Amino acid sequence: MTDAARIPTSIPAGKAPVIAGAAWRSLLDEVTTWPKPGLVSHVDTGSHTDMNAETFRKSADAIAPFFADLYRCGFHGGTLAALRAIGQAAEQAMLAATGGVNTHRGAIWGLGLLSAARGRRDASGDTASCCDIVRQVWGPNIHATPPDPSSHGGDTQRRYGAGGARTEAAWGFPTIRSVGLPALNRGRQLRPDDPQAARVQCCMALIAVLEDTNLLHRGGREGLAFARDQARTFLDGGGVGHPAWSARAATIHRRFVARGLSPGGAADGLAICLFLDRTDS
C-alpha cells in the first residue's frame, strides 16, 4: 500500500491546535530560561539590542497558528515545497509582529518540519520518530536545495562550510537526539524541582557541540571555539548539579555579551528539544 493510500482525509479533532500549542509553549519556555549565554530572556536582552522577551512573545503568538497548518500539511502528505510555503507565510507574520526583527526563523524551520512529521505519522500510523520521518520523507530534498545566500546560515555555509540547521534537519536532528534530549533529562535528574535548570543544562550541552551558524556569523571560528569551551567548562564542572550553577552560568552569559556572541542555533535547539519532549511519544 502506498503512503498516499494510507493517508486518511480526516484529521483527528483538535490535534493540529494541540501541536501548535506545544510549539508555542516550547518557544515561550525557551525565552523564559535564564541564564542562557548571550541570549534574550525575561531577565535581559543578552547580546541583542533590537529585541527583548516581549518581542519573542509577540513572535510566538504570531507564528503559533502556522504550526497547526504545518501539521495538517504533513497529515495530508505535503511536499517540502508545500511546507516551505507555509513556513514563509509564518516568517512574514513574524516580521509583521516584531517590526522586521528575525526572532524565530530557525525555530519555524525546525519546529515546522517536526510539526509536519507528527501530522504525517498520525495519518499513516508510522511508528518512527518524528525526527526519522523528517529525514526519510523530506531529507533528500533538503540536501538537494541550496541554502539561501542572503541568510546568516547560507552566508556561514559559504564562508565556513557549516551545515547549520538545514543539515541538522536533513539528517533527522542527530544532535538534538544524541545531545540535547539526554541533557534535558540529565538536568531534570540533577534538579528535579527546577525545570529552568534542566533547560539551561540542555542549552549548554548544545552550545558545546553545535556548529552554530549564529556564533560563526558573529564571532567567526574564534567565537565559536570560545563559546564551546565555555559551555564544556560549565558541563565538566557539574553543570546544573554544581551548588553555584546559576552564578556560573550567569558569568558565562556576561562573557558572551562582552564578546557580542549569541548562540541562536542552541536556542532553537532547546525549543526543539522541549517540543519533542512534549509531542514525540
From TrEMBL:
Its EC number is 2.4.2.52. Residues 141-161 are annotated as: Disordered. It is an enzyme of class 2 (transferase). It catalyses: 3'-dephospho-CoA + ATP = 2'-(5''-triphospho-alpha-D-ribosyl)-3'-dephospho-CoA + adenine. InterPro entries: CitG (IPR002736), TriPribosyl-deP-CoA_syn (IPR017555). Pfam families: CitG. GO terms for biological process: prosthetic group biosynthetic process. GO terms for molecular function: ATP binding; glycosyltransferase activity; triphosphoribosyl-dephospho-CoA synthase activity. Keywords: ATP-binding, Glycosyltransferase, Nucleotide-binding, Transferase. Involved in the formation of 2-(5''-phosphoribosyl)-3'-dephosphocoenzyme-A, the prosthetic group of the acyl-carrier protein of the malonate decarboxylase. Belongs to the CitG/MdcB family. This is Probable 2-(5''-triphosphoribosyl)-3'-dephosphocoenzyme-A synthase. It comes from Gluconacetobacter takamatsuzukensis. The gene is mdcB.
